[in-house]
DNA sequence: CCGCATCCGAGAGGATACTG
DNA sequence: CAGTATCCTCTCGGATGCGG
């Protein structure tokens, strides 16, 4: 809470802050991208692996998100010319650089969620 | 990039991470809320003040966002029974606790935006 | 001054069937 | 296996007019 500016006009810090957050959220401020990045922080994954690990996402949406993230330079798509086909997704350095943001958001969320229920760890492996 | 888990199953860190980020983004992961919080970090503001300071937002959307944020406990609405009416919006402690998140997102955004153009500071005051 | 009511278009995200 | 192709719903956000 800085009151360095006592007038009602907007200051540069605010405008730049807007800019930054708006840009950041344009890349990851939606339903699935943070989850995808979170998964890929443990290393590259194949398409079906991602799909199975992300509960509730549809195929269409997963592909759309992956394509957008590839265009934004957050992930890299690795295609192996094999039969059956094999595609892996991997974070770029830019994507990796988002880890601190996700950590902060995750920590705040866990701290302030209504009732912190422990997530069941049991997952089909 | 932690590879503490070499199997393909999901681990607890990931699930909790999802949870936290999804919850956090459900509160501020949209077009205007980060900007509104950013404004209020400098202190409480009146409705019209907010409207003028946030370029491009419509009245309807501003009110909707403010109501949602009030319901989520991020801001407090202060009504002064005067004529003409006077309403001020102020961050709650919960809303204030989001400052670090916005700072991190803003910093990352400014660092990685295509061309960092200086924002013109000239604003009608 | 501070909204609320109404209408509207765009697009995000979902379900499902099909293909190289 | 790794996607396309359709179709559909629902919410977000915008424009505008009115009311206490």
Automatic annotation (TrEMBL), chains A, B:
Signal sequence bounds:
none
Q: Name one GO molecular function term.
A: DNA binding
Pfam families according to UniProt = HxlR (PF01638)
Question: PROSITE patterns recorded for this chain?
Answer: HTH_HXLR (PS51118)
The reply on keyword DNA-binding is yes
Q: Which Gene3D superfamilies match?
A: Winged helix-like DNA-binding domain superfamily/Winged helix DNA-binding domain
Keyword annotations for this protein, in alphabetical order, are: DNA-binding, Transcription, Transcription regulation
Q: Which domain of life is it from?
A: Bacteria
Q: Can you name this protein?
A: DNA-binding HxlR family transcriptional regulator
The source organism is Chitinophaga dinghuensis
């Amino acid at each position: 809470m800085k009151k360095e500016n006592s007038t009602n006009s907007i200051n540069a810090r605010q405008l730049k802050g807007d800019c930054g957050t708006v840009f950041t959220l344009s890349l990851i401020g939606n339903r699935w991208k943070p989850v995808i990045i979170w998964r890929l922080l443990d290393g590259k994954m194949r398409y079906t692996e991602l799909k199975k690990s992300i509960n509730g996402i549809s195929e269409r949406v997963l592909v759309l998100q992956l394509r957008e993230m590839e265009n934004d330079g957050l992930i890299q798509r690795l295609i192996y010319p094999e039969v059956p086909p094999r595609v892996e997704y991997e974070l770029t350095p830019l994507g990796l650089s988002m880890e601190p943001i996700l950590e902060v958001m995750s920590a705040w969320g866990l701290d302030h969620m209504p009732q912190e229920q422990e997530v069941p760890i049991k997952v089909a492996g």
